[in-house]
């Protein structure tokens, strides 16, 4: 026989407000705050309120007008279901570190499949502890309820009944006490049930199924079957996105990048959780400061080495932002990352003569760290390492790499003398000023890519006794490099 | 208040003989590759020190002078604001072991910051930096960092007209005369300045013989 599945439903009745509170200072959190929704016809009313607002006598469902009359210093903000759903998504991502099967019930609920986790975390207690450990790090009010069916768990949690039990009888008893108003049935059917004198789910469950079907239609049969645990509709499980997109409401206008560093820390923690659950590292991301009207300011942050710990990223981001200026105040901050790499031990070779792999890796990391630090402040192009390419054209025989990638920096094979300096732009010269000492070396190449060269190279000495690398091309002379 | 003499020492106008008498362990000295120069500098370039090389003009032989030093480095070297791009094929031809790292930053303040960071890193074999001029404060600071992290660093700069003191450990002046690179030691550890003497850098460079046209 198949083992009965066990579900938990995590309900977060004031997720959006909790999220906003967690960004505020202790002092701000103590002020009464509410979120008001203007859905429906009766004008804006309170949907979420913090502890201070509750203490001041504000109740959920109260019209916004009476709430502000009751507490004049009340801070009101609009409720936004979409944004709350985004927060929920983030929460799912956070929990995904421990729990593989999560279904989203936006805007305020998550369904967790815990049957398999019991093995992993050592029984029911273990799962509970693990989850609570995770949740404790988030300042979110949750109601967590268990169920032998997703719907049962959901009804219990959303009716505010925190019951974590694996005992079916206990759950059924709790379910029977839930009022029809919390049944999650459509309002019309709730009305019909109440008119028929059915006020609790227990009353409903006692009725014969056939009779219910005849009176309330097929949907009701399936509903009751779910409550009884006879039917379990398939769940659509959350899959972590391959891209990281997070947005943070700053609540006030922020005028400089320096002030954004604190909220940014949260985004980086989320990024760390994202990376950790996938065993990835990030090499670059984009920060966007959203303004009231203007197009968002974009800042690309790149790291010389792949990172995943938020405090490592924090340090480098801080350095990179020191160079940036925010022209207009920002209201929101978002972080977009899609350049990830698998975490792996690097195997490339810096020091062929040193056999100790560990030693080599350490040196390599030190170099990458230096690159990271310098590029963070001066820009990615400011520090580059030469890489040899096989091309006859002198200017194409090396390129500059912004990252320290030791695997690429193989030593070039050179048999003919080459200068230690190369001018980025060749310089026209008067040949009378030069004394030819060695040559010619004919370099004819590049006809295949539209940059053909046809040159005769000489080593020559200028009037200051400096050895230059000069060439003749189509009757004219140019200086291309220096030997000393 | 500091003793007036102390102030002079800080300014670098008065040197303490004690420092000169200190023995330097051989592993702290980097062979310059030129026996004559080694002797004149008391054994070679001192690691954990900043050395100044003054040139009449760029590409005059200063790199040839440093080639043996750069060759000896197992770790890559950083080039700060060089006058042209270092050319890895040419450097490999001169038997350098690691591809050069090029740092270019126009703002002197930022470049100095980067120089200091580079001196602190253990990832580099040596740091060679080009600066038009460095004030005594900057030099003292860089010298301290180089000493603390035992990094070998060179500053290549035009011939200085004034003779104001700087905390470089060695100060050299290069000039090309009589088919030879002449190296004068303007300042050195534990000794008086030395007049110009030829250094055989031409051995490392392509042969000088005029092509018959």
UniProtKB/TrEMBL annotation, chain A:
Q: Does the keyword DNA damage apply?
A: yes
Q: Which residues form the signal peptide?
A: none
> What Pfam families does UniProt report for this protein, alphabetically?
IMS
Classification via CDD domains = PolY_like
The entry assigns this protein to a family as follows: Belongs to the DNA polymerase type-Y family.
| Record keyword Glycosyltransferase present | no
Outline the extent of the UmuC domain: 30-157
Superkingdom of the source species: Bacteria
Q: What UniProt keywords apply to this chain's record, in alphabetical order?
A: DNA damage
Which InterPro entries does UniProt cross-reference here? DNA/RNA_pol_sf, Rev_trsase/Diguanyl_cyclase, SulA_CellDiv_inhibitor, UmuC
Q: What is this protein called?
A: UmuC domain-containing protein
A single GO BP term for this record reads: DNA repair
Tell me what organism the protein belongs to.
Pseudidiomarina piscicola
Q: What is the lineage of its organism?
A: Bacteria, Pseudomonadati, Pseudomonadota, Gammaproteobacteria, Alteromonadales
TrEMBL record, chain B:
Alphabetical list of SUPFAM superfamilies matching this protein = P-loop containing nucleoside triphosphate hydrolases
InterPro entries from the xrefs? P-loop_NTPase
Instruction: Please report the name of this protein according to its UniProt entry.
Output: Cell division inhibitor SulA
What organism, scientifically named, is this protein from? Pseudidiomarina piscicola
Show the taxonomic lineage: Bacteria, Pseudomonadati, Pseudomonadota, Gammaproteobacteria, Alteromonadales
């Amino acid at each position: 026989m198949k083992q009965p599945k066990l579900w938990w439903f995590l309900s977060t009745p004031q997720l959006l407000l909790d999220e906003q509170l967690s960004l505020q200072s202790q002092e701000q959190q103590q002020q009464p705050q509410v979120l008001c929704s203007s859905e429906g016809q009766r004008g804006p009313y309170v949907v979420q309120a913090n502890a201070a607002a509750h203490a001041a006598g504000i109740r959920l469902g109260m019209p916004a007008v009476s709430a502000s009359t009751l507490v004049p210093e009340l801070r009101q903000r609009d409720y936004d279901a979409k944004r709350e759903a985004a927060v929920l998504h983030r929460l799912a991502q956070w929990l995904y570190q421990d729990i593989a099967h999560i279904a989203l019930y936006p805007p305020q609920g998550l369904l967790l499949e815990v049957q398999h986790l019991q093995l992993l975390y050592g029984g029911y207690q273990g799962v509970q502890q693990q989850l609570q450990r995770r949740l404790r790090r988030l300042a979110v009010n949750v109601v967590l309820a268990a169920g032998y069916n997703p719907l049962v768990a959901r009804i219990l949690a959303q009716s505010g009944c925190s019951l974590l039990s694996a005992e079916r009888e206990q759950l059924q008893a709790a379910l029977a006490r839930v009022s029809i108003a919390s049944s999650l049935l459509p309002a019309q059917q709730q009305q019909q049930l109440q008119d028929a004198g059915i006020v609790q789910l227990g009353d409903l469950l006692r009725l014969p199924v056939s009779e219910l079907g005849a009176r309330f239609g097929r949907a009701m049969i399936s509903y009751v079957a779910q409550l009884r645990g006879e039917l379990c509709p398939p769940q659509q499980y959350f899959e972590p996105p391959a891209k990281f997109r997070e947005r943070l409401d700053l609540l006030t206008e922020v005028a400089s990048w320096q002030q954004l560093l604190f909220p940014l820390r949260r985004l980086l923690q989320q990024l760390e959780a994202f990376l950790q659950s996938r065993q990835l590292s990030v090499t670059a991301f984009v920060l966007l400061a959203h303004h009231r009207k203007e197009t968002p300011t974009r800042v690309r942050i790149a790291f010389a080495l792949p990172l995943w710990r938020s405090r490592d990223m924090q340090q480098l981001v801080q350095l990179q932002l020191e160079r940036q200026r925010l022209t207009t105040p920002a209201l929101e901050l978002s972080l977009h990352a899609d350049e990830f790499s698998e975490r792996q031990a690097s195997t490339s070779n810096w020091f062929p003569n040193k056999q100790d792999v560990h030693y080599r890796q350490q040196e390599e990391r030190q170099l990458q760290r230096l690159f990271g630090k310098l590029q963070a402040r001066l820009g990615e192009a400011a520090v580059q390492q030469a890489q040899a390419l096989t091309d006859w054209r002198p200017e194409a025989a090396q390129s500059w790499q912004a990252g320290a990638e030791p695997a690429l920096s193989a030593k070039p094979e050179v048999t003919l003398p080459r200068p230690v300096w190369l001018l980025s732009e060749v310089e026209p010269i008067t040949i009378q000023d030069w004394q030819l000492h060695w040559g010619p070396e004919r370099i004819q190449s590049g006809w295949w890519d539209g940059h053909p060269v046809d040159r005769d190279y000489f080593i020559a000495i200028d009037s200051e006794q400096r050895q230059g690398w000069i060439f003749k091309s189509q009757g004219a002379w140019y200086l291309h490099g220096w030997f000393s | 208040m500091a003793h007036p003499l102390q102030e002079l020492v800080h300014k670098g106008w008065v040197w303490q003989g004690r420092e000169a008498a200190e023995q330097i362990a051989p592993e702290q000295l980097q062979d310059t590759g030129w026996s004559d120069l080694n002797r004149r500098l008391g054994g070679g370039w001192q690691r954990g020190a900043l050395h100044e090389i003054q040139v009449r003009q760029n590409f005059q032989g200063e790199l040839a002078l440093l080639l043996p030093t750069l060759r000896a480095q197992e770790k890559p070297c950083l080039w700060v604001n060089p006058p042209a791009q270092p050319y890895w094929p040419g450097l490999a031809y001169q038997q350098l072991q690691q591809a050069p790292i090029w740092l270019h930053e126009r703002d002197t303040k930022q470049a100095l910051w980067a120089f200091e960071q580079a001196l602190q890193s253990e990832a580099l074999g040596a740091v060679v930096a080009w600066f038009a001029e460095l004030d005594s404060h900057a030099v003292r600071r860089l010298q301290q960092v180089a000493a603390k992290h035992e990094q070998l660093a060179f500053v290549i700069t035009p011939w200085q007209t004034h003779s104001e003191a700087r905390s470089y450990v060695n100060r050299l002046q290069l000039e090309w005369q009589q088919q030879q690179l002449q190296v004068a030691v303007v300042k050195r550890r534990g000794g008086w300045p030395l007049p110009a003497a030829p250094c055989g850098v031409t051995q490392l460079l392509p042969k000088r013989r005029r092509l018959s046209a």
